[in-house]
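Saturday, quiet lab. Running sequence design on the structure tokens for the scaffold JK sent over.
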């Protein structure tokens, strides 16, 4: 996951890509890659609200990588999330 996040951050030119390798800091990179404010990380501390915030972040990340926003919700599914992150990193978007 860290490798994929690092590569996505490099391609989107979010800056400080090295933070993808450090736990907790990688959340900041995820917010930057989704083009959202880092202050949103504080919302992750509130139960139930954190699920909504993560859903928004995952959906926005999928959009920025050229996928449907619903595709980002698959990042909530264990094991499938590894495949989705890999596809967001390496599989080119389809020209439909």
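Result came back. Writing it out in full:
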């Amino acid at each position: 996951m860290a490798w994929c996040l690092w590569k996505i951050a490099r391609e989107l030119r979010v800056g400080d890509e090295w933070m993808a390798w450090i736990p907790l800091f990688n959340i900041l990179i995820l917010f930057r890659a989704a083009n959202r404010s880092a202050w949103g990380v504080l919302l992750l501390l509130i139960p139930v609200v954190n699920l909504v915030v993560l859903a928004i972040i995952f959906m926005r990340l999928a959009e920025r990588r050229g996928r449907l926003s619903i595709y980002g919700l698959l990042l909530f599914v264990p094991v499938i999330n590894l495949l989705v992150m890999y596809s967001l990193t390496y599989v080119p978007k389809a020209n439909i």
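Notes for JK: The first helix runs from residue 2 to 12. The chain has a mean pLDDT of 90. Ask whether to fix the surface positions before the next round.
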